[in-house]
Every structure is written in structure tokens, then in C-alpha cells.
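Sequence only, no structure available. Ideas?
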Amino acid sequence: MELLLVAVIAVGVVAYVHYNRIVSAYNRVQRAWSDVLTYQRQRIKVLDMLEPQVAGFQAYESQLLEKIVGLRSAIGSLPSAADGGALKSVDQGAKALRGELNLALEAYPELRSVELLSNLMREVAEQEGNVGGAITLFNLNVERFNNTIQLFPGSLINRLALGKPLIVPFSDSEASAGIEYKPNF
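Reply:
I predicted one. C-alpha cells follow.
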């Protein structure tokens, strides 16, 4: 009888510990996603400052302004729930925009606002670094969470008590395409 009571208590403690691990891991993923969104919104602020400057030489590069507005809109429409897949187009758009802005600055060095634009471009690059770091942390937390709900006994606790689905990490297919090495998994 005592042995049965000890076994029940032990199972209860294991279930309690793993339940809390799953909830904690899920909350870390959501926090990491919030950080990604925060950095993306900071990028919007820089784009808001960049937009009037680019409008000044819109005659030279009319499509550039549209791309800045489109990127800002795409960042603003990122979901509040963690979703690495939703970030792909925003990340690709930011990289493309940065390259086009650099080309525009090189093509029209006589513009008065070039120094201001250069400073804003440095800020855009810094924000891209912040977003990249936040995405790295997000993916790390996604991996930990997914492991927590896939490994036993967490998988059992999740199935019986929480029902949390796997979260898709962010991946950059464009960057992956440029790498020769492909892991065999």
C-alpha cells in the first residue's frame, strides 16, 4: 500500500514538473517572438524616417519608396503568435531593400541628403542585426519547446493536458540555397 502511494506521488511529481516545463518553454517562445516583433517595429521607425528622404529623390528611384512602404506594411502585419514562416517575406524584403538603397546612394552621390541617408542606412543595418539576433534566440527557444513536447514524458503530458502544437522555426530558404553543404537528415 505504501509503495503504491509512493509511486502515485512520484508520477504526480513527474507530471507536475513536465507540465511546468512545457508551459515555461512555450512562454519563452512567445517572449522570443515578441522580441522579434519589437525589433521589426523598431525597423519601421527607421523606415518612417527614411521614407521622406527617399521621397526627395523619388524622381530617380520611384519604386524604392513603394518598397519601403510595402516593407513597413509587411512588418506591421506580422502575427502576434509565434510563426517563423510569416517572417520569411519580411526578411527577404528587408535584404532586397537594403541592397537597392545602397545602389541608389552610390548612383546619386550629389544629393544633399546623402549623409542623412547614409546614417539611416547604417541604422537599418543595425536593426537587421538586431532582428537577426532575435530570430536566432527565437529559433533556439522553438527548438527547446519542440523538444520538450516531443520527448517522453513531456509528449505524454502535452498530449493529455496541454495539446500544444509544434512551432515552426524561422528559416531562410534564400540563404540556404547559397550553401553547398546539405545535411543528410
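Helices lie at 2-56, 62-76, 87-107, 114-150, 154-162, 173-177.
Hope that gets you unstuck.
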